[in-house]
Amino acid sequence: MKILKRNSVPFFILFLIHTFLLGFTFYRNKNRKDILVLLVSNMGFAYLFEYFVFNLFNSYVYKPKIVKKSFFDNVFGAVLSQAIFVPFTAVFLTLSKSGWVVKISGSIYFSLIELLFLRLGVYKHNWWKTIYTLILLPFYFKWSDYWYSCIGKKNQIVQFASYFLLIMVTETNLFFVLAIMRKFRFGMGRYHSWTEHFILSPLYSITLSVFTAITMKKQNDVAAKLKVIVLAIGLNYFFQKIKLLKNKLRDIEYLLIRIVMVFVYGQYREWVYGERDKG
User: pTM of the prediction?
Assistant: First the structure.
């Protein structure tokens, strides 16, 4: 229990700080749909970056000691960083119209946290260096400004990309929860390792998200929803058949999840495009 408390406390403190920043941002601004789209888009960009740096090339290790299994605990630490700490801050800086000085200060802030976490032993570098964090974060914060500006201008490319990112983040988080529950596991061969799962699962999420975004962008009706559900069930069946996926969910459970998801993605479409289609 002592180790759990010592490791998890720094993450919990950061969670409180950045949740307050985000809450303050929503409180101070009325255009909350656009802010929400920006937030999840920022998460999506962070997830895509993390897929290459963390999932594929094992850049660093998180040790929050929140999830019992160490592999999941490591991934959960990455989720906290890429879905909460950094994106929440990016949204706060964008909506407060901060300049380069504040953005660089934000980068220094995260770099100092990184050094502190290294010292506390709740985080470890493999090949990553703190200087990379210091250099890259200001550009990520600036990219958030640009994306929010394009959202406000109804840029069609940014709207579609945002819609895709909202779906992808949701699918990624869904499959992470199912993996923790030991219900969903990708892998090759007889034994499906979790390392393989977290390489293959994001690719599955991206594929499903691209198809969903293209299909439901055109029309948010029953036919579009059915196409997405049929594809998801078809892929699920195909990957199980070729033994690339172990799915312990019952068919009715997976179908219900897919039905709920398409209605959620219909709501996302309204947030992004500001319109509602009946169906």
Answer: 0.93
